[in-house]
């Protein structure tokens, strides 16, 4: 959410009435979340935004206290002091990993939206037991050539992996476990904060047992009972054609391992675009500048121009003006969604000869006298033509 941009109404986002009950809110959210989930829409920025937006709305409307505050004070009430870190109303909204976690918490595993999306072979996240590992953000620079037709990349990532000594359990072989006294074996602690907006309950992982609910007598020496050690892996990431900087692809289970055998988080691969030597990207179109000589422009010529996948022949018609855009259809970037590709636009730049010999000067002088034509004035239509070429 950009600062200054009006936030959409939470009820409108979920498409429910203001008096919708908890069940209707949950159903509406579930439907939207499954539809826009990033794992189902890799690299789709607008789906990601919709997923985050819906999750934020759901987080507020499913909570009676927050919903009352929102009904009374709107968005301002939630971003106000005292709403606390769990209230998601802040100026920054919340980020993707918050949204993914919220979704997994209520719908992950054990049949439900998760299985619906991926078949019954889910990662088993969101179940009760040891908490999951954190997501890992990785940046990936891609060339325009790679973006144009899609690619597959192998990435070496450093992350926490399950301990090799104890296989992630965190305990030395034969060690006993006792229930954690701080959380009574539940693994969670509840903290109640009061503010002028009412009472908020924050549930967090127990700091003593880190969510496991039990304490190990003899912790593993290698991982000091955490069940994880630093490691690295190579992951393979499929990148669809047409991605842009800021898109991301999540690789399930490639993030940090969870403590004491807990499920791993995801690797979130953020796409970056390396600027190209000779091409400029405009959406899915590619702009290329082609210098030609004055005689080529006047008489016309056939030239070879590079594209993102190999060179092609281009006809420069006789009488081509400097600045003219010639279109190579379908030679741009493959559309991320739907079929087809953008175009390559070749902008012709007529090069004025310099360092003329006396013979050449004499010839041009003769031509000037013979032709005698004056260039027309550049009027509005010249610029309008330029602009319309870009719109395709
Ligand atoms: Zn260990
Ligand atoms: Zn505990």
Short synopsis of the structure:
The protein is 28% helix and 26% strand.
How would you characterize this protein structure?
The chain is α+β, with helices and mostly antiparallel strands. It folds into three domains: 1-127, DnaJ domain (Helix Hairpins, Orthogonal Bundle); 130-165 and 226-274, Sandwich (HSP40/DNAj peptide-binding domain), CATH 2.60.260.20; 279-391, Urease metallochaperone UreE, N-terminal domain (HSP40/DNAj peptide-binding domain, Sandwich). The protein has helices spanning 10-14, 22-36, 45-61, 64-79, 96-107, 113-118, 144-149, 294-299, 358-371, 380-391, and strands at 136-142, 151-162, 177-179, 188-195, 198-205, 214-216, 228-239, 248-251, 267-273, 279-282, 285-293, 301-307, 310-316, 325-328, 344-351. The strands form six sheets. A four-stranded mixed sheet has the order 10-11-15-14. The protein has a three-stranded mixed sheet with strand order 1-9-8. The chain has a two-stranded antiparallel sheet with strand order 2-7. Helix 3 crosses helix 5 (96-107). The longest helix is centred in the N-terminal third of the chain and has 17 residues, at 45-61. The radius of gyration is 30 Å and the shape is elongated.
Query: What is the beta-strand fraction?
Result: 25-35%
Name the hetero compounds present.
zinc ion
The neighbouring-strand order within the major sheet is: 10-11-15-14
N-end to C-end Cα span: 30 Å
């Amino acid at each position: 959410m950009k600062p200054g941009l009006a936030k959409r109404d939470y009820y409108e986002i979920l498409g429910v009435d203001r008096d919708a009950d908890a069940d209707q809110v949950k159903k509406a959210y579930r439907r939207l979340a499954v539809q826009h989930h990033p794992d189902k829409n890799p690299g789709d920025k607008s789906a990601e935004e919709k997923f985050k937006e819906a999750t934020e709305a759901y987080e507020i409307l499913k909570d009676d206290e927050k919903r009352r505050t929102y009904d009374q004070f709107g968005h301002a009430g939630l971003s106000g002091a005292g709403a606390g870190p769990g209230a998601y109303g802040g100026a920054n909204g919340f980020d993707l990993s918050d949204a993914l976690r919220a979704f997994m918490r209520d719908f992950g595993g054990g049949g439900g939206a998760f299985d619906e999306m991926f078949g019954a072979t889910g990662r088993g996240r969101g179940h009760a037991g040891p908490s999951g590992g954190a997501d890992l953000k990785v940046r990936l620079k891609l060339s325009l050539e790679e973006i144009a037709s899609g690619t597959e990349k192998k990435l070496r990532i450093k992350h926490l992996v399950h301990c090799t000594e104890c296989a992630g359990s965190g305990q030395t072989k034969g060690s006993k476990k006792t229930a954690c006294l701080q959380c009574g074996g539940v693994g969670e602690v509840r903290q109640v904060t009061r503010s002028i907006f009412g009472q908020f309950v924050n549930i967090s992982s127990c700091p003593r047992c880190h969510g496991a609910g039990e304490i190990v007598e003899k912790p593993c020496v290698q991982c000091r009972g955490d069940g994880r050690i630093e490691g690295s892996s190579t992951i393979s990431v499929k990148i669809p054609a047409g991605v842009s900087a800021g898109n991301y692809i999540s690789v399930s289970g490639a993030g940090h391992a969870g403590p004491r055998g807990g499920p791993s988080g995801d690797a979130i691969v953020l796409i970056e675009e390396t600027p190209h030597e000779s091409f400029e990207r405009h959406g899915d179109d590619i702009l290329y500048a082609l210098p030609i000589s004055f005689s080529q422009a006047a008489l016309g010529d056939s030239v070879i121009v590079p594209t993102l996948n190999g060179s092609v022949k281009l006809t420069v018609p006789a009488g081509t003006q400097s600045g003219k855009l010639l279109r190579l259809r379908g030679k741009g970037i493959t559309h991320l969604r739907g079929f087809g590709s953008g175009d390559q636009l070749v902008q012709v730049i007529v090069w004025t000869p310099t360092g003329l010999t006396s013979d050449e000067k004499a010839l041009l002088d003769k031509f000037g006298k013979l032709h005698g034509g004056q260039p027309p004035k550049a009027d509005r239509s010249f610029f309008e033509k330029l602009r319309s070429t870009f719109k395709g």
